[in-house]
Every structure is written in structure tokens, then in C-alpha cells.
Design goal:
Elements (H helix, E strand, L loop, with lengths): L1 H6 L15 H4 L1 H12 L7
């Protein structure tokens, strides 16, 4: 991630607790929280 962040300043790296490779399946609420922050709008599952 450090290399990507160096190449693209302003990039934000977010970890979703309890999630592995398939983030929406592993932690749906956490995925929507992180993605909603990225979009600038709160999202919710379902």
C-alpha cells in the first residue's frame, strides 16, 4: 500500500475489521461504512 499511496497522493487505505478477500460477504456493514465514507454519503446494508 505504501507504494500505491506514494504514486497516488491522496489515496486512502481503509481496513474493514473481520473482513478478508471478500469484504462485502465478510463484513457487510463495515463495507458499506467504508464505501459510504469514500462516496461522501452514508450507506447501509440491505
Amino acid at each position: 500500500m505504501a507504494e500505491i499511496e506514494a504514486l497516488a497522493p491522496g489515496t486512502v487505505h481503509v481496513r474493514v475489521a473481520g473482513a478478508g478477500h471478500m469484504i462485502p460477504w465478510d463484513n457487510e456493514e463495515g463495507f458499506y461504512a467504508a464505501f459510504g465514507d469514500f462516496l461522501g454519503a452514508r450507506l447501509r446494508a440491505g
